[in-house]
Specification:
The chain is of the alpha+beta class. The chain contains five helices and seven strands, in the order βαααββαββαββ. The protein has helices at residues 13-20, 23-29, 32-37, 46-62, 91-99; strands at residues 3-12, 39-40, 43-44, 75-80, 84-89, 106-112, 115-124. Mean pLDDT is 89; it is low at 130-138.
Length: 138
């Protein structure tokens, strides 16, 4: 039976307000598509950006890789079907997920001033993990 993993994170809007003042810095955390999705006609969507950042952190927690640096741009949070968040992994993030036996990730985001909260969930297959991603004793 697959084992479940849950990750959760919270990002204050104030942190995002500071971040959006420095566009090159923001580009280190969000992909070009995420930046496009997070900007409206009246400027940056602070709650939306906070939600994306919280979701990335929550997803990263599913990998169970202490000491690793979060591959910010390798975890993309995009929207489909009228705003439902979807996780896309690439590069180092996809590699970490494979090592952990993770294939599908569900994410939920909510925001209300002063912060955004995201929860990520996966049902990973413990028999599909490499030695590096296994939680089992050897």
């Amino acid at each position: 039976m697959p084992a479940g993993r849950v990750g959760i994170d919270m990002v204050p809007f104030g942190r995002v307000r500071d971040l959006v003042r420095d566009e090159p810095l923001l580009a280190r955390f969000l992909s070009p598509e995420e930046i496009r999705l997070s900007h409206g006609s009246d400027g940056p969507d602070i709650p939306g950006i906070a939600g994306r950042l919280a979701a990335k952190e929550a997803v990263f927690k599913l990998f169970h890789v202490p000491g690793q640096t979060l591959p910010w741009r390798g975890i993309e949070i995009v929207t489909v079907d009228g705003g439902r968040p979807v996780v896309r992994l690439a590069g180092k993030a996809a590699e970490l997920a494979r090592h952990a036996g993770i294939e599908d990730i569900a994410v939920s985001i909510t925001h209300d001033d002063p912060c955004a909260v995201a929860v990520a969930f996966t049902a990973c297959d413990p028999d599909n993990r490499s030695a590096h991603g296994s939680d089992r004793q050897h």
